Design the sequence.
């Protein structure tokens, strides 16, 4: 008896429809991968592009906000940059250097770390001394009769003792040293006169500058010591805090123009009126003993 065998199914690899479906699926997978991969690859390629040469525009770095007309040409040292960049103090080989600045305005800046490393671009000699002695206020300094003229670039970033080494460099290069001395001098005493003043409000972490009046400055969520430092810097006279205020405040005050030395007394009197009305604080001009940083020629010290 003859039995006719049933037709056996074709193997998949010999089935034309299988290959058509497979090619379509593989093509779709490759297209999808390229669609999502090309943007990532483009981004990665941009990240590994070589840095632009000196003199060309550069991208803003941490602590560096590019401004027009900055001098981006290469200088004597790699750490000399037109604006202070925090990473220079950590990435630059340890050294202590002071040299005449190689920059002009608007370049310039200064920075100091908690580990007492310091750097400055286009700074005056008195500021270099102030940095070397970690002194908080220029208004509490008595300068030597003859200070070096001009402006300077400097760095002190030794792993330890950087500021002491900068002091030694100041003495070696300029023959200057500085000592703390208590001296009688003109000061302003800041005291509370009355509460609930419109320009002095309790601050909060979320405090943000509100729309203020033209010609005014707002300080959100700051301690009174911030206001004291601002006054000292603006008026160039020591300000002694006797407010007893320990909290944080939102402060609004008028902008204090630098003016000229001859206008200082007039500006203080006008500020006294504004502080009483807006902050409830009284500014009292008097004479008091204040610790000062006295800069002298090294030959004048014992």
Sequence:
């Amino acid at each position: 008896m003859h039995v006719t065998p049933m037709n056996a199914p074709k193997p998949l690899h010999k089935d034309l429809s299988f290959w058509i479906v497979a090619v379509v699926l593989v093509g779709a997978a490759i297209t999808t991968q390229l669609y999502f991969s090309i943007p990532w690859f483009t981004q990665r390629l941009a990240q590994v592009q070589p840095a632009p040469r000196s003199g060309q525009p550069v991208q803003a770095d941490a602590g560096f906000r590019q401004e027009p007309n900055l001098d981006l040409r290469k200088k004597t040292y790699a750490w000399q940059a037109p604006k202070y960049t925090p990473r220079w103090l950590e990435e630059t080989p340890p050294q202590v250097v002071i040299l005449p600045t190689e920059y002009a305005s608007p370049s310039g800046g200064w920075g100091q770390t908690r580990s007492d490393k310091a750097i400055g671009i286009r700074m005056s000699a008195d500021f270099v001394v102030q940095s070397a002695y970690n002194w908080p206020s220029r208004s509490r300094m008595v300068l030597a009769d003859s200070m070096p003229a001009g402006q300077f670039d400097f760095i002190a970033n030794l792993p330890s003792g950087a500021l002491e080494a900068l002091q030694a460099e100041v003495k070696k290069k300029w023959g200057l040293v500085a000592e703390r001395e208590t001296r009688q001098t003109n000061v302003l005493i800041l005291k509370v006169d009355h509460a609930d003043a419109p320009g002095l409000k309790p601050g909060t972490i979320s405090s943000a500058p509100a729309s203020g009046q033209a010609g005014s400055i707002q300080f959100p969520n700051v301690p009174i010591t911030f206001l004291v430092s601002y006054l000292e810097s603006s008026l160039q006279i020591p300000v002694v805090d006797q407010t007893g205020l320990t909290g944080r405040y939102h402060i609004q005050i008028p902008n204090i123009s630098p003016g000229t030395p001859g206008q200082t007394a007039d500006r203080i009197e006008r500020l006294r009126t504004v502080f009483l009305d807006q902050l409830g604080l009284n500014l009292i001009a008097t004479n008091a003993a204040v610790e000062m940083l006295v800069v002298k020629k090294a030959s004048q010290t014992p």
Notes: The first strand starts at residue 96 and ends at 100. The helical segments are 16-47, 87-91, 125-132, 162-174, 224-235, 264-279.
